[in-house]
Amino acid sequence: MIAKTATECLITLKGVSKAYQQPNGQKISILEQINLELRSGEIVALLGPSGSGKSTLMRMIAGLIPPSEGQIFYHNRPLVGLNPGVAIVFQNFALYPWLTVLENVELGLKAKGEMPEPRLQKALKMIDIIGLDGFENAYPKELSGGMRQRVGFARALAVEPELLCMDEPFSALDVLTAENLRFELLDLWLEKKIPTKAVLIVTHGIEEAVILADRIVVLGRNPGRIRADLTVNLPHYRDRKTVEFQTLVDQVYKILTNPELSCVTVTTPAESTATTASEAQPAPTPKYQSLPQVRTGAIAGLLELLEDRQEKDLYRLGQELMLEVDDILPIVEAAKLMEFLVIQEGDLLLTPVGLQFIAGGIDQRKQIVRTQIISNILLVQQIYRMLQAKRNHRISEELILDILEAHFSPKEAIRQLQTAIDLGRYAELYSYDEPGGEIFLESEVNNQ
Ligand code: ADP
Ligand code: MG
Hints:
The protein has helices spanning 54-61, 101-111, 116-129, 145-158, 175-190, 206-212, 243-257, 296-308, 314-320, 325-337, 352-359, 362-376, 378-389, 397-404, 410-426, 443-446, and strands at residues 9-21, 27-39, 43-47, 69-74, 77-78, 86-89, 163-167, 198-203, 215-219, 226-232, 264-268, 341-344, 347-350, 394-396, 430-433, 438-441. By secondary structure, the chain is α/β, with parallel strands linked by helices. It folds into three domains: 9-280, 3-Layer(aba) Sandwich (Rossmann fold), CATH 3.40.50; 288-371, Arc Repressor Mutant, subunit A (Orthogonal Bundle), CATH 1.10.10; 377-448. Strand 4 and strand 5 form a beta hairpin. Helix 2 crosses helix 3 (116-129) and helix 6 (206-212) packs across helix 7 (243-257). The longest helix has 17 residues, at 410-426. It is globular, with a radius of gyration of 25 Å. The structure holds adenosine-5'-diphosphate and magnesium ion (MG).
């Protein structure tokens, strides 16, 4: 089956940024300078690690929240308030438990001011198309997860949106149910059983993106920027086992795992139509690295595994361990930050320090981590210097949090601090006095 020809421009984002104001007045930038077009005829996957601003971007397109800067156009006219052409399917289904399936599906139509009779007819038709026949009078709690999400789909599709937005719609479902629903949705789309003109699916699953999308837009973190815009030219229905499929998955994986890579615009397979080039802007060097939240044990586990195995390819290793990108990436990022490994063409290669770490006993390992975090992690460095500078070698965590909140959201600032404290504790560089909320210098290190 050939992808529909993309023509009419439904949504345009021009220089869209989103920042949130913190209670202390400081601004946290979530998304920066997003330029994006969504055209009729295409399924676009918005892919990125969690926290990269995918949901935020989708909510702006739906008109649920305004951008802080830049403009969003719907049919080339500035979007004001709710986007009338958009309906959303949520990850957690978002159904009203006290309403029946039929009543839930009718909701969107009611909000659009449809009269009772046509409303009922449209709802029943969509219930039929979506495979909920016979469940009209059931309540959400009587349904399985998969059936509940069908209600979510039926409710969104009943209003015949031009753009169907879905925020990780399959991630709360078990693997088989998710795969079935994915293909059923694809059927509806490819066989034009729904008048929807374009689909935007937010996901953190690479394979999900490659199975469904005509275009994959990759978002990066801190701040969220478009890192790649790939056109997928594989015919539907795609077979996960083919070389082309796996090559593309690998390619996307490499983009996701190489934050240094700036902006890429690619069409795959190689030939075929050009894509709109997103303005390539080198990502600004963040003042603080975003520390991935992982335990040192997990990093050690990964390094040991790398030493034991032939398999160095990050993607295949993840598959072998049955780890999702979101699970393995933070570990890899942490190991990279500490210079225990490098990523080369998607392969994870241990560095001499990494090898030393593996070979070392517990004390040597702590020593190595101590050296690596002092020289590579700005936050640890800063805490350590402040501790050394203070006469009593103690600082309050509030002080660090204040500094961090200029760069991260309050929640993320706490996570960052927690990670820096855990690392320092493991390395016996500093300790943490829980009740007092103070970080203090370990005397033995202090005396060195
Ligand atoms: P994703 O969907 O990619 O996981 P989100 O769009 O949900 O990411 O969030 C991106 C970042 O924006 C997160 O760090 C989140 O904490 C922050 N964020 C989202 N909404 C708000 C808000 N209303 N106020 C402050 N920060 C927010
Ligand atoms: Mg989200």
